[in-house]
Design brief:
Strands 7-8-9-10-11-1-2-3-4-5-6-12 form a twelve-stranded mixed beta sheet. With 210 residues, it is of the alpha+beta class. The chain starts with a helix and ends with a strand. The chain has one domain (2-12, 17-188): outer membrane lipoprotein receptor (LolB), chain A (Clam). It is built from five helices and twelve strands. The chain is globular, with a radius of gyration of 17 Å. Strand 2 (55-66) and strand 3 form a beta hairpin.
Length: 210
Amino acid sequence: MIKRCATQWLLLGGLILPTLAFAESAIDKLNAFVLEVTRLEANFQQTVIDTDGQVVEEATGQFLLSRPGKFRWDYDTPFPQQIVADGERIWFYDVDLEQITVKLQDEALAETPAGLLSGNTLPEAEYNIRELESEDELQWVRLVPKEADNTYQTVALAFDANGIREMLMVDSFDQRTRLVFSDIKINADLPASRFEFTAPPGVDVVGDIP
């Protein structure tokens, strides 16, 4: 359970947004993403690489975002899992183990990449931000947490003309987690029910239960 949930904690074309398409710099695109993208739907591919450069885990699934503070990660492979943030709590559901862990959202997301993705305030208060060299038509920006005890050393985001495309996180153990987004839909209609979670009958629920 611990190993399978570890990478989730590291988080923890479609419609084109004009401001993102015409923003000049990666920082402009980061700010436009935070302030103007209120809803997002995408598929993702996640790769975890250890300090020796070896791939230790690969996963795929779907990501939904509704600002402020609501998101959903549905992992299809290698194991079916769900992570749902409803604005107050985050629900971690391991389907195979039939176990749900609940965390208070403000505590769980403080200065995390998931909080960065789902927040609606500019990240400059909590991160030192620097643009990186463009690569393969992607503009990269690196964010370094100002708090020294943060779980992550750096978070890098890549944007193209249509918005966010990749996210690269380096944790305190130098392990890298890369997320590549595809089939992105920006500001499309998303039912509020997609960000609600009801525990299935017979499943154990532990943590900050409402």
